[in-house]
Amino acid sequence: MKKIIGILILVLICESCNHWNEKKETILLADREAPLGWVYLRIYKDKTFEFESRGLERKGDIYAGTMELKNDTIYFHYSDSIPKAGNKAILIKNVVSYFSGEYPERLEIKKNKLLTE
Known about the structure:
The protein is α+β, with helices and mostly antiparallel strands.
């Protein structure tokens, strides 16, 4: 009986480790080179996203939350603060174009399965 309990505990530990190591599946990747770094947008299959502004020698500022797609417009619902690019963007060919912020932001799409999900 002790062997069975030990084996079950080992299996549970292994399963929990595998769960934490799983990466989210991206359905949209877009980026652009900034003057001193990069700007990234990652949208995941579970409708969460990360908007990251990264400098050359520092870890980036990451703005995260959930998104919803209506026609060709993406509405970003941030968990915390909103980046200066804003909370709305439109999909135009191979570009994600933010239009509701302090400045327009355009990111080149590298991967797009958003419309097929």
